[in-house]
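Hello,

Our lab assistant flagged a job as stuck in the queue for most of the afternoon. It eventually completed. Since we weren't sure the result was trustworthy after the delay, we are filing this so someone can double-check. Below is the sequence as submitted and the structure that was eventually returned. Let us know if re-running is recommended.
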Amino acid sequence: MLLRRWEEMPVWMQKSEVREYYEILQKHRGSLVIKKIFDIVVAILLATILFPVMIFLAVFIKIDSQGPVFYRQERITAYGKTFKIHKFRTMVNHADQIGTAITVERDDRVTRIGRILRKYRLDEIPQLIDILEGNMSFVGTRPEVAKYVKTYTPEMWATLLLPAGITSDASIRYKDEANLLKDASDVDKIYTEQVLPEKMKYNLDALRRFSFFREVKTMFGTLAAVMRQDKI
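-- returned structure --
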C-alpha cells in the first residue's frame, strides 16, 4: 500500500499528470499505512466469518450451471501489475468468449444464481483473497481488463498508484452502468469513450480528497446501496 519512490515507478507512469496525485498521496502516508493494516485485518476476519457462506454459494453455483465456481480474469492493479481476480462465476462458462467483457442489463449470459449474486454483490466476496494477496484493497478504482487500461489518458494512470478496489465512489454513483449500456450497438466503444471517462472523474477526485476515514465512509455507502437493492 505504501507508495514507491517516484524514480522506482514504471517509466510510463512518471508523467506530470500523475505526479500531481502522487504528491497528494505522499502527504497521506500515515493514512496509507492504516489503510493497509485495515485491509489485512478486516479481510482475515471476513474470510473467516464468511467461509461457510462461500461454501454454500459454491454448491449452488455448481448445481445451477456447468463450469468452475470461480471466474478468474486478468485485471490490472497498482503500477500496471496484472493479476487474476477472484469472483464467483455469475455467467455461463466461457462467457467472455461469446460476448463483450462488459455485462449489460438483461445479459443472457448471466445465470439464475448469478443474477442474485450480482444483485447483492455476493460475487465479490472471493476478492478477499485478492486483498490478502496484496492485489486489491477494500476501496479503490475498480480493476479493469488490459484493453480498457490501454485507453487511459496519462491522468487516468494516477489511479494505478494504489491497488484496485472492491468498491469506490464511482461504483456507488455510477450504479446504472449496465442499464446505460443495454441498448448500445457497440458496448466497448460506448464504454471506453463515454462511461469510463465519467467513472474516472470520481476515481481521480477520490485520490485528490484521499483519507482513510473517507474510504470507510465509502464502504458504508456501498453497504447502504446494497441494502437498498441498488445495482452497483
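-- support follow-up --
The delay was a queue issue, not a problem with the job. The result is valid. Strands lie at 70-76, 82-88, 136-139, 164-167. The chain has a mean pLDDT of 90.
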